[in-house]
Design brief:
Chain lengths: 132, 733
Amino acid sequence: MKLNCKYPFVRILVSFALVIQAFQCCDVKSERQKKPSNMNIIGAWQKISKSNCSEKYPEKIKFDQNGIYYGEASQYATLHPVWDVGRFELVKEGSVRISTSNDSRITYSVTLHGDILTFTDLDGCAIQYKHA
Amino acid sequence: MNPSNPSNGEPGNTVTSPATPVTTSNTNGFVRKSIDDSSKFPPLPETIEHASVVSEQLNFLSDEQLKKLNDISSPKFFSLAQGCYLVNFTPLGTSYHYDGTLRVQKVGTNTIASGDLYNHKPFKIWPKKKEATDPGSFQPVDNALSLFGEPNPANGVPIFSRNNYRYYLRITQILESVSLSKSFTLGFEMWKFNGVSATPTWTNEGAFKSEMTFTTAPAGYPSEASYLVGAVKNSANVVVGNLTMGWVSKYMRSVIVEIDRVKDSEPPLDSGLGHTWQSIFDTVDWKINVIESNNNVTEVSGDSWSDGEMHAAMLKWRDSADLDSEWRYHILAVNLIDSTPRGIMYDADSTDSNNVPREGIGIATNWTIPNDASWGKVKGMRFGSAKAPYFRTALHEIGHAMGLYHNTVDMGIMNTTDVIAASAGSALKFPDNIKWAHAADDQKRLRHMPDIFVRPGGTPFGTSYSVHPLSPDDESEYPEGLALNVKPVQDVVPIGAPVRLEISLENISNEILPAPRSLNIKDGCVEGKITDPTGNVRSFKSIVICVDDTPLKKLKPKEKVSNSLTLLRGVEGALFASSGSYTIEVEVSWDFRGGHIAITNRTNVYITPAKDDDHARAAMKILSTPDTLLSLAITGDHLTNGNEAINVALQNPVLRPHYLYIEAKRLAKPFGKRKRDIKGAVNLLKQESVMSKSEIKKAVKLFEEVEEDDKNDAQHMVSLLNDKVQNDEYIIN
């Protein structure tokens, strides 16, 4: 008690250090929690992939907050888009489950670098989208 | 029927002097107009227009009421009954013919129709496989024609073998309502089916017409009065065969839905609200025969089924598998499904182990509906016990088996359960917000898409609607007072170059009229067709589908909306792939007051052959590179294939002027780390370059937004371009 009274600035410093450490812990924890939210795919995306294997995926896709997505085909596509409309959910870090045109639900790996969103399907085809 | 591509000189069509209305009259005297400025063609003799002497009221009589009236009255009235007609088309000088169906739908006083033809060789030259028969048995033959394998008209909607499928008939002209004449012109396009894996899947073999005359049906037809015969003529007016059509059923298509299920799972038979399979499909004129079959299908690996297991169970448990004698769709009701919570049309892609697509679907009875408010009145329920959404899912999955895709225009059958549940509110909770019908465009698809698209075992699931032909409907109205002008920037174009058009929609009336704010093809209200020198038709539309409503503006008298089109490729490939004369038809259409407005006009261009080998090679590169279109429309360094083809064209002195603007546009825009190259763009456009008015305006805009260093070059070019726009000179040199 005496010590505390004698060195009040030490107590303040220690308190500060503890508070900062606590904040840092919280930051680390919230960073971990934020990981899925870093993978924020909500919004409209424009396909930039030109590969043959990506032809069956929509030209534009919009992911809504309510878990529903809407795909839009290129008029010149000869295939109906596998992702036309349905439900999507980020099931774990780097994975998204999307219901497809025949109502199957398929899990795709997904990455987001800058504004480039890349899905990889079960056949290993990478489909890249850019924020529209 | 609204013939979107009428041929000059057809009965009922009159071509008058340039820039004057072309009057189109159907057999009922109803008049539609379009503008034609095809000044290169001499005016053809005018046909005599006849106003209808039939009371408007007669047009609204049902087929039965008209029959009763004809029993007691003279003269007779003629009308096509709605439903399925058995069709026979016999080309001249052949040992074979085509059997098929024609589906006639009546919407008020309008008629929409479509048909399919299957090849039939009555006398086979190849020895037929002998079938094992009981020597003591005698198989009675109920119709003499069946000895030759002809369909029996008394059996209703005929079913033909998929292997013999040959043509879709896109009907462009037909008897619309009630007529005093016993003849009318049937106009149609014959779309040849090239096979499920062929590219393109369909080829339009041109326009045909047949003067059909009502006559007495041969024995066996259910309606003596609904039988017609006619000679078929091609676009050169040469008779190429004979056509008969006789009414056989009020239904357009007839199918079987077989339901097999594991023990304790419910058969999806009705909604619990009065909707049954037949009541839903009555709205699209399909006959549905629902067969509840096995109710004790054994589980192979527990209560949750993989797609492959369901497909194997369908092959094992279904009662019949001959899709060439019946259209049978299969439903398997199981407890749970591995790949989805509610239901799936599993019969596609790798699951389709027998390579026969769209035969079957699976539905899960034991999925537990999430216990949250969005699921409304059925939250927390076992799916099989929630009758309405359970039955709806079965209808939805069978819709996929019939070739339909998801459709969010309303809360109808082909919308997804998730979207419908998410769209419900507190006033109208799920599942009360389900619409128990197919959306209007899906109804049309079920009635009029080609047989091979909708029937089980036909084209694979996943081909786009747009690659298949579909009969036009008749709901568009001509906008009196507006004129569509279509003019090519150059009417003679070298092969391999894009064709540039100037289009404008002008108010030629004294009133203010509504019109689209923009004729930009990307806005979705401009599309068209191109007829090549051999009569094949190809279409063009925007690359990206625009789903928004077309914004309209009030067009003052004499005011016009203008734009330019640069045409190179369409859905069916290169639009100008050979030399010769081409007809380009442009249609501008938009939704208005719950209806549809459309106006068309045509122009002609001549594509010259390759000047030398170097030109031929450059043209081949352009025409064989689909991505050239993307380079034209979107522009960017990432479009490597398209840009490479354009570079080849730029090396060729004949094609170079036609692609200079495309390359200049790319250079003038920065891409990634590459800075904009205004000097390079200006140097290109200083050369002789072919540009449309819109391209000149876009170039001006590009050069107006440059940085200080490039100002001098850009300003000089802007002033040059502006002069060209003022003077209507589109070739820059």
